[in-house]
Design brief:
The protein has 152 residues and is an all-alpha fold. It is built from seven helices and no strands.
Length: 152
């Protein structure tokens, strides 16, 4: 039954095939998926390398000893890109990581910083995450963070 469904969606029609032929179809599709994801991995590695180079040029890692694109954690890359780079480079972040992941990092690392990054956070909230009242949202996130810190 699975193979009948598979053949219908891949080739656009129902076709009863012997098991061996279905296996060949399945293997060909898996090969395409592997090639596609391999190309995506190379592209993502290239994007990460470009962002890391831009951050190094902007002197974002001035307090670190030896920095390379492979050693930069995703959280640092997202945070530093928002702070130091421009809109084109920030757009690369959204190609590199899922939007929800970027939003989570932004909320946990940047949105809680209060007045220090307030204007930047308002812009990020409006432009990238479609938050309707960013000032209220940021104040609420900061309050929640402070309550959480007091409980510890």
């Amino acid at each position: 039954m699975f193979f009948l469904y598979f053949v219908e969606h891949v080739f656009g029609r129902y076709r009863l095939c012997p098991y061996g032929l279905l296996t060949i179809y399945y293997l060909c599709l898996m090969k395409r998926v592997e090639q596609h994801t391999g190309a995506m991995d190379v592209d993502k590695r290239q994007l990460k390398k470009e962002l890391a180079e831009q951050l190094l040029k902007a002197n974002a890692f001035w307090s670190y000893a030896n920095v390379s694109a492979d050693k930069i954690p995703a959280e640092e890359l997202v945070e530093k890109t928002f702070i130091y780079l421009d809109l084109e480079d920030i757009a690369k972040l959204f190609k590199l990581y899922p939007r929800n992941y970027i939003r989570k990092i932004w909320r946990e690392k940047m949105a809680i910083q209060g007045d220090y990054l307030f204007d930047l956070n308002v812009m990020i909230a409006l432009y990238y995450f479609d938050i309707k009242q960013p000032e209220k949202y940021l104040q609420r996130v900061e309050r929640e963070h402070l309550k959480h810190m007091r409980r510890k």
